[in-house]
Amino acid sequence: MIRTAILVLLAVALSACAQLPGTPGTADSQETTPLPEAGSPPPASPTAALVEQGRRQSADGQYDQAVASVERALRIEPGNPWLWLELAQIHRSAGNARQADGHARKALSLAGTDRNAEQAARRFLGE
């Protein structure tokens, strides 16, 4: 119950910063299912724990560790645009605008038919 409350608070905090809708999908999935605001893979995804860890680290100001966690997730699912957006958000939070924009552009290029990912990437780049 406490863990759920912490995750909800973290999701709200990140959504306030990023305004990224959460639609994951594996690199080879055709359709994705919308999730809560932060943009993480679904709980069944092999990268969900890494994204969650990265978010906690980022919230604690441990940006290097957060980047490393999400980069590990990207080694598992390199074609997942939501992971690239997650990495972009961490870089933005750390004050690395150039890297953030580059990762968001990568997410946009990988969005394919995922309209939610495409819109999220465009919104991120427009901010």
Mean pLDDT across the residues is 76
Main sheet record: none
CATH superfamily: Tetratricopeptide repeat domain
From the 3D coordinates, which CATH architecture would you assign?
A: Alpha Horseshoe
User: Would you count the extended β strands for me?
Assistant: 0
Q: Roughly how many Å is the radius of gyration?
A: 13 Å
Low-confidence stretches: 3-38
Structure description:
By secondary structure, the chain is mostly helical. It has a single domain, classed as Serine Threonine Protein Phosphatase 5, Tetratricopeptide repeat (Alpha Horseshoe), CATH 1.25.40.10. It has six helices and no strands. The protein has helices at 2-18, 48-59, 63-76, 81-93, 97-110, 115-126. α2 runs antiparallel to α3 (63-76) and α3 (63-76) packs antiparallel against α4. The longest helix is centred in the N-terminal third of the chain and has 17 residues, at 2-18. The protein is globular, with a radius of gyration of 13 Å. The model is unreliable at 3-38 (pLDDT under 50).
Describe the structure using short key phrases.
127 residues, mainly alpha, Serine Threonine Protein Phosphatase 5, Tetratricopeptide repeat, 6 helices, 0% strand, disordered N terminus
